[in-house]
Structures are given as structure tokens and as C-alpha cells.
Amino acid sequence: MVSFLSLRARASKRGGGRSPGEGHTRGSDTGRTRPALRVVGRGGGDAALRSVRAGRSLVTRQEPGRTSSRMRFDPDVIVYHGSPGAFAHVACQAAFPRARCSGCDSLFQVIDLVRKGKASAAMLPCENILAGRVPDTHLLLPDMGLAIVGEVFQRIELHLMAPEGCTFDRIERVHSHPVALAQIQRFLSRHALVPVEASNTATAAARLRQDPSGRDAAVASQQAARIHGLKVLKRNIEDVPFNMTRSYVLAAKPELPCAETPGVLTCLLFDLRNTPGALSQAVKGFADNGVNLTRLESYLVDGQFVATRFLCEIEGHPHQPPVARALDRLKRHTSRLTILGVFPMQGTGVHARAGAIPASGRACVL
């Protein structure tokens, strides 16, 4: 199997078509004990989903989370990794304007606050159009014990800023997060500017106020410039004119939409046996049942360079018969199968997966 596997299905037709894994030989799973299908959640224990063969739907215990026909997750306090003005902060405010947004120094602090009930939810970036998956979130997701309850797409616009009185012709060094610097390489090369890495974009902007040498600038959001009293020297300097980051909204308990809710994503984590064709056989049920597979990412486990654990996203609800049949097929080939979240697609995400991202790219309330 490929060590780092990232399959995106943004141009796939919704509700039909075939998924990866089509056309492979059927394997044998005689004598295997199929695992329980579980939904991640804290504060009430895991919610076990009992699957039944032959077209019967999955049955869910509702105690750990709420179920509603219309998802309207409305947290009081939402936490993110970074400082005010960071893009995660901007995404929190755009998606949840009534919530109190609080920055944290580390991802572990973000997760811990939600686990302990000191915050209602967390906003963690999971992938970027240019940079791909966010490694830190990807590695922590399987064991953080939080449920994915939503997604937010945030347009990333990078601006060059400096203290008042500074002019662009005097700038020699540009400070920002490494990922942001990687997205403005052409701009830096064209103007012979030296990149300087910082822990996040907002921190880079804040440091300029402390050391206004006149030779340093930062690359960050418009909001970071306002918060730290900086002047924007150049707007939208990113090498690619359109960029977007997708974030997960995570909570201690699942927020389960009804099976009839349109535009739902299910995020799964599963472990496979390290045998030839195991992955193709595991995901073939999605193709056979017309379930669109939109994300597939691998993990290296047990210190080996062999991918046997996978993060998977599909369109549909576990209670819908085609999805239930596909999950039943998946279970035959896994030693562990966990639902990390069932949540509605954000409006921008629907367009992104269809290959027609709107010009605004703004985040909106889930």
C-alpha cells in the first residue's frame, strides 16, 4: 500500500458513479470476527452503532449526542490554536459570530479545554488546497476523543504589513508561518526579500509592534493588521490567486443529524490487515452502493512503513441504506472501525467538492 495516500474526489458526481477500488478481485474473510462500529464521543461514553446485514439500517443510541433534522450547532465558547488575528481566529468569528473565541498556545491545550468542558467546541484546520493535509491535526485526530460536528471553509488572503511609517522599498525581511511563506515564494523572490519563520501569522504581526526596525514586515490576515495597528503595504500577495483552508469543528459529544438530512458527510477511521488487496476490497462497497468517497488518508502505525490505518470521508449518513450496506462491507475487512463524526457539509464545501468554488469563499454558520 502507498505510505501517504491522499485521494480527492472533488469533481465526482454526487449520489452516483463509482469510487476507488472498483474492478478488484473479491477476497475471502471467512472466520473473521467483525468489529463493533463506534461513534467517538466523551461525557457520556462512546455511542455504539449496531449494524444489521441485508439492507437493514444502523441503529444508534442517542444519549451521547443530539439528533436534529436541521443542524444548527451554536457553541458558547470556541477555542483555536494561535493568537487573535490568526486565520483560525478569523474562521471562528465568521462561522460562529455569537461565540466567544479563545486562542491557545498548543493543540493539546485546545483539545484539553473541550474535553474538560471549559469550551464548547474547537476549530482545527485539517487540509488546505495548496499545502494538503495539516499534519498535526491529522496525527492527533484518532486519539483526541472528540467528535467532528461540522466543517468550515475559510478563504486565505495573505497581506504584507508593517508598522505605520514603514515603506515597501525599505523592507528586507518578511515574517510569517512557514506554510504562509511557502505560498508567497514568487513574491519573495521577485522582490529579493528574506523569509523568517514564526509560530503563526498573527504572532509574526504582533512582534513587529515590539520591534519596529523599519526593515521587517509580516504576512498575515487583514484582521491581524487591525488588531496590531499595522499598515497593509501589499494586498493579496499569494502566488496562487485563490486559496482555502478547511477546518473541522469538534465537540465533546456528537451532534447527529437525521438520516433524511441532505448534504451530510460521515468521517471514519478504520484499521486493515496488511494483506494484498485489503484496501481495494474494503472500499469497494462504497463504489458498489453508489456512495461517494471524498477523502482517504493513511497513517503509519506500530513503527512500520506500512499503511494499515485510514481516515475516510464519505457522502451520506450511516442510517441511509446504501451507506449502511457499504459500512457493513467495510467491517468485514477491518479490525477496528470508528465513526469520528456525522455532520452537514458547509455551503462552500458543497461547491468545492463539485469543482465550482464561489468567488467569495466565505465561511458561514453551520
From TrEMBL:
GO molecular function: prephenate dehydratase activity
Keywords, alphabetical: Amino-acid biosynthesis, Aromatic amino acid biosynthesis, Lyase, Phenylalanine biosynthesis
Region (Disordered): 10-40
Enzyme Commission number, as recorded: 4.2.1.51
GO annotations of cellular component type: cytoplasm
Pathway involvement of the protein, from the record: Amino-acid biosynthesis; L-phenylalanine biosynthesis; phenylpyruvate from prephenate: step 1/1
Domain ACT: residue ranges: 267-344
Reaction equation(s) it catalyzes: prephenate + H(+) = 3-phenylpyruvate + CO2 + H2O
The Prephenate dehydratase domain, residue ranges: 77-252
GO biological process, one term: L-phenylalanine biosynthetic process
Pfam families assigned: ACT, PDT
InterPro entries, per the entry: ACT-like_dom_sf, ACT_dom, Preph_deHydtase
Taxonomy, superkingdom: Bacteria
Biased composition (Basic and acidic residues): 21-32
Record-given protein name: prephenate dehydratase
Organism annotation: Stappia taiwanensis
